[in-house]
Design brief:
heterodimer; A: alpha+beta; BirA Bifunctional Protein, domain 2; Methane Monooxygenase Hydroxylase, Chain G, domain 1; 10 helices; B: alpha+beta; five-stranded antiparallel β-sheet; four-stranded antiparallel β-sheet; 26 helices
């Protein structure tokens, strides 16, 4: 199974579970959690089911394309189910079956893992899922987002696509993964890895990046005050990415690091509060959509 | 009598929450039954990552009837003179559900009250149990709890099913939206179910048949046996790390060990790196041969059966290979420079939350080490090693391997220092300065390591307490109590007579923005508390420890020595009692503070002269023995004072009418107590029995033992 077959299979599986197939977000993010389809939609009372691939940039994890397991940019397959259904784990395990992973032939373990994202004021409880000793998924019940308690609680499944493909294809290096028939991950991605690592570690102009952080933050605060929540949230994502870049560049003193993280979190919190208020003003549109999609019996009957 | 089964089916619980939760569940269920007057026989628990279960045998089908007497208003309030009930009586009777004429008048502790005697019928157990069991389960506490779906209740992980059976009857209860049924679920991959449980007595059989080994102790036995067997067949023995074993016991429902191998070339990596990768990160048992060398094999424990083990083994081998390749890459990268070259990058590493960088901390440690060297008059060689170790001890924090495996801090520093050709004692000191790292760990073994540990921990305590990060209750996120215990142990191990306050002041001065000055006393108090805890843990009497601490100021070693000597001497009862009585009588009469020495010219009786003579003779001897650290000897020197003190009290009136005589006698007794206090504060010692008759008499007036007062 190629990497793109893995994606196609997951898309079909989760579409059949009534997930909206969203598209990757077009602002740099470090994880699918930061996609507005996760971070913002997890807030408030509206039910939501979504799945999408999210390219995730982590400047500090880059290794110039030279380490078989480390990447500047990796690809997450992200699923959010809100409220978390009673059969979350079963659904997830069934999706592995769809990928040709026969569970009785392996060792699948849900190992305790508490998740926290301090720049987003977010936290959750759940597991890392291990397959024969390899971590392949992060499974999290969100408890807080942007400093707000989540109600209902969403469950987030984050598949590490490279890890899963390496497992299925028995590859020792991420760059040997077959992306499409006859084309490897390395052939597609290696140049980007090398150049982005060089940028993040060696070439990013610290003054410019720092200035960009300040501008984005100011823009974000201005927009959130104007009630433009989604544009403001884009600025949160930019701040978060610029922060990561400065961090990778080792340009942050300890005190500055704490300060910037705090500034990011403040903006994220204001967006979260603004989002919930705005959705309320709009009458929580997805509550109505849920009624339309699942009929009067509600979502439970549809997934039983 | 019927049996009761309660099984809470969950998603995978955190391994270290399970045993405590089972203990609580058993206690809470037993208490709930007792509160319902349901006398129960045996209560046992069964637990896996996906279920917490409780089995009770011999549960009565019905509560026994009971009579409850409830005291109401006073009789004169409840009834008019003619015996007519007042509105107060009517209201009280109604609240107890009985007619007002059934109220009785009873005398309680000499007063008359209206009393309701309520007959309670026994209800069927199946009727009263559900609510009580729900409360019992939801009251179990966990390290962390969570919400899920659109429910409000909290538990460690989501609850997915509930079995609640009283014999064959399903108890009508609901937990987190799960209605109790007689249906359980088996092992995820072996026989998931649903499976019916017809009766509590069938529960364990049903679990077995579905691939679940329910008792943690049984899983542990299986794991240890399989792991040991597999290791033996690989020509070695497993490193049965207790923490890892506990974790695996509580993260499997049907453990099955399997052996894998890794390439021999990885054995060139330092042993702690290999063990950490296998043990901490992959949850594998490492294997060593008879010479304690690691074998290129490992044992993983799968949750499942023996089918397709080769596939699982291959997967694990492949993951370990990748991990070790990473580790080797990091090791080679780290070796491209010397440990010393890492120092500038400590600028980028935070110490505790608001306490600056590790570079700043390193600078403070070097300065403090220099001051400690002077205080202790260390020889040049030791002092040099200590300064070098202080300079390098945090450098490994920025190495790749410690970045990847933070638990190897110190260990990697030692390894890299050795490879750099640093002196052995410097390398070892770096390696052990974090010790003790856990409750069962010991302090550093070498002198330089211990001194470095002392300096490091003291700097941490000053910074943390100064910033208000005081541990409370079970919360000690920065490990400050452990640091304190480490200091106390080091001081005793190296026998350092050291003014903690002097060293703490020096440590405080090292901080750029000074922590408030009271922090020095706070740290000294904190350390005294740690010493007290440590000594009482070792079996010393707390009152003797207090008696020792009270006179040792900030010299922890002196306090420890005094406490140990008191404990040894107190077993020689008669002598100790005599000392205690003498001190007790003398100190008790010294109510007002005063100063001045006794003037021999003003003595009026020979007993005064006698006591003065003895005092003058023993005082220097006591002081000398204390200075030499021989507290038992000091107590022996005190002994001759006992008799003249007693005689003085018997022969003369201390509180003589003539103020000058009185003041002189008090001054004499004060000098006596001062000599005693060179050894210990005897007033802190609790004398339990009549061995001290005079004291017992005096105490009798202050602390009456009879209750009726």
């Amino acid at each position: 199974m190629t990497l793109q077959d893995v994606i196609l299979t997951l898309q079909r599986f989760w579409a059949a579970q009534d997930c909206v197939l969203e598209q990757p977000y077009d602002v740099e993010v470090g994880a699918g959690t930061m996609h507005p389809a996760t971070f913002l939609r997890a807030l408030g009372p509206e039910p939501w089911r979504v799945a999408f691939v999210q390219p995730s940039r982590r400047p500090a994890d880059g290794r110039y394309g030279e380490n078989p397991n480390r990447l500047f940019k990796h690809f997450q397959y992200q699923v959010v189910l809100k409220p978390s259904p009673d059969n979350s784990q079963d659904l997830y395990l069934r999706s592995l079956g769809q990928l040709g992973i026969k569970l009785p032939e392996h060792d699948v373990r849900f190992l305790e893992d508490d998740w926290e994202a301090p720049t987003l004021g977010a936290s959750g409880l759940g597991w890392q899922v291990f397959l024969d000793g390899q971590e392949i998924t992060q499974f999290t019940y969100f408890q807080q987002m942007g400093g707000l308690e989540t109600k209902p609680v969403s469950v987030e499944l984050t598949y590490g696509l490279e890890r899963i493909a390496m497992f299925i294809q028995h590859k020792a290096s991420v760059f040997e993964i077959e992306w499409a028939r006859g084309i490897t991950y390395g052939e597609l991605r290696k140049q980007d890895e090398a150049e982005q690592s060089a940028y993040g570690f060696d070439r990013a102009d610290v003054a410019t990046v720092r200035q960009a952080f300040t501008s984005s933050e100011a823009e974000g605060l201005r927009l959130v005050d104007a009630g433009l929540i989604l544009p403001a949230y884009d600025q949160v994502l930019k701040c978060s990415h610029l922060f990561n870049l400065l961090d990778a560049r080792r340009a942050l003193s300890v005190a500055e690091r704490t300060t910037l993280m705090g500034r990011c979190r403040t903006l994220a919190r204001r967006c979260a509060e603004g989002y919930v208020a705005k959705r309320g003003e709009l009458g929580f549109p997805l509550l109505r959509a849920a009624g339309r999609r699942h009929g009067p019996k509600g979502s439970k009957a549809a997934h039983a | 009598m019927p049996d009761l089964l309660l099984e809470i089916g969950t998603e995978e619980l955190p391994p270290f929450d399970i045993a405590p939760a089972l203990g609580q569940l058993a206690t809470r269920v037993r208490t709930a039954l007792n509160d319902l007057r349901l006398e129960v026989g045996d209560v046992q628990t069964i637990g896996t990552p996906r279920r917490l279960a409780c089995l009770c045998s011999g549960v009565p089908l019905r509560q026994p009837p009971a009579v409850r007497e409830v005291r109401g208003p006073a009789a004169q309030v409840a009834f008019e003179a003619g015996g007519r009930p007042t509105p107060a009586a009517v209201g009280f009777a109604r609240s107890q559900g009985i007619p007002v004429e059934r109220l009785q008048v009873q005398e309680v502790a000499g007063k008359r009250y209206a009393v309701a005697v309520v007959q309670e019928k026994g209800h069927p157990a199946s009727q009263v149990l559900p609510a009580a069991l729900v409360t019992a389960v939801l009251g179990v506490s966990f390290t962390k709890t969570m919400r899920w779906g659109d429910r409000d209740i909290r538990f460690a992980r989501p609850i997915r099913w509930v079995v609640a059976l009283l014999d064959k009857i399903v108890l009508p209860l609901e937990l987190a939206g799960c209605r109790a049924a007689h249906v359980t679920y088996g092992h995820r991959t072996l026989r998931p179910g649903p499976h019916s449980v017809s009766h509590p007595s069938r529960y364990e059989t049903v679990l077995k048949s579905t691939g679940i080994i329910g008792h943690p102790a049984e899983r542990r036995k299986i794991i240890v046996r399989q792991v040991t067997d597999l290791a033996r067949r690989a020509g070695g023995a497993p490193l049965l790390d207790a923490h890892l074993l506990d974790e695996i016991v509580m993260s499997t429902e049907h453990p099955q060990a399997l052996r894998g191998a890794f390439a021999v070339e990885f054995l060139t990596l330092p042993r702690p790196v290999l063990v950490t990768v296998m043990q901490h990160h992959q949850k594998y048992f490492a294997i060593e041969d008879a010479q304690h060398g690691l074998r290129p094999t490992f044992i993983a424990v799968r949750d499942g059966d023996t089918k397709h083990l080769a596939t699982v083994q291959q997967g694990h081998e492949w993951v370990l290979q990748a991990r070790l390749t990473d580790a080797r890459f990091f090791f080679k990268e780290d070796r491209k420079q010397r440990l010393e070259d890492c120092l500038p990058r400590l600028e980028g590493v935070t110490f505790l939350a608001q306490l600056g960088t590790m570079a700043e901390k390193t600078q403070r440690l070097v300065n403090l080490a220099r001051q400690l060297s002077t205080m202790l008059l260390l020889d040049g060689h030791t002092s040099e090693a200590l300064l070098r170790a202080a300079t390098l001890c945090k450098a490994d924090l920025v190495t790749h391997l410690v970045g990847e495996f933070p638990e190897l801090q110190g260990t990697m520093g030692q390894i890299y220092a050795e490879l750099d050709g640093e002196p052995t004692e410097v390398a070892r000191a770096i390696g052990e300065h974090y010790r003790p790292t856990g409750g069962d760990d010991s302090p550093p073994k070498t002198e330089v390591g211990a001194l470095l540990g002392l300096v490091d921990k003291l700097d941490t305590l000053i910074g943390a307490l100064g910033a208000g990060l005081v541990p409370s209750g079970s919360q000690d996120p920065y490990g400050l109590r452990r640091a304190g215990q480490g200091i106390v142990e080091i001081v005793q191990m190296l026998r350092l007579h050291l003014s903690v306050k002097a060293l703490a002041s020096a440590a405080r001065a090292g901080y750029g923005t000074l922590p408030r000055s009271s922090v020095v006393d706070e740290v000294a108090d904190f350390l005294r508390q740690r010493l007290r805890a440590l000594l009482t843990e070792r079996g010393l009497r707390y009152d003797l420890v207090d008696a020792a601490l009270a006179v040792s100021d900030d010299d922890l070693l002196a306090a420890a020595d005094r406490a140990a000597a008191l404990q040894a001497y107190v077993s020689r009862r008669p002598e100790f009692s005599r000392l205690w009585v003498a001190y007790d009588r003398a100190s008790r009469i010294l109510t007002a503070p005063s100063s001045g020495k006794a003037d021999a010219q003003k003595f009026e009786s020979p007993t005064e002269h006698q006591l003065y003579k003895v005092l003058t003779a023993v005082s220097p001897k006591v002081a000398l023995s204390v200075a030499a650290g021989d507290i038992v000897k000091a107590m022996e020197h005190l002994l001759p004072l006992a008799e003249p003190v007693d005689r003085l009290f018997d022969d003369v009136l201390i509180m003589a009418p003539d103020p000058a005589v009185r003041a002189n006698r008090l001054a004499l007794l004060r000098s006596v107590t001062e000599v005693f206090r060179l050894v210990a504060d005897f007033s802190k010692v609790v004398m339990a029995d009549a061995q001290a008759p005079a004291a017992a008499r005096q105490r009798g007036t202050e602390q009456p033992k009879t209750k009726k007062t």
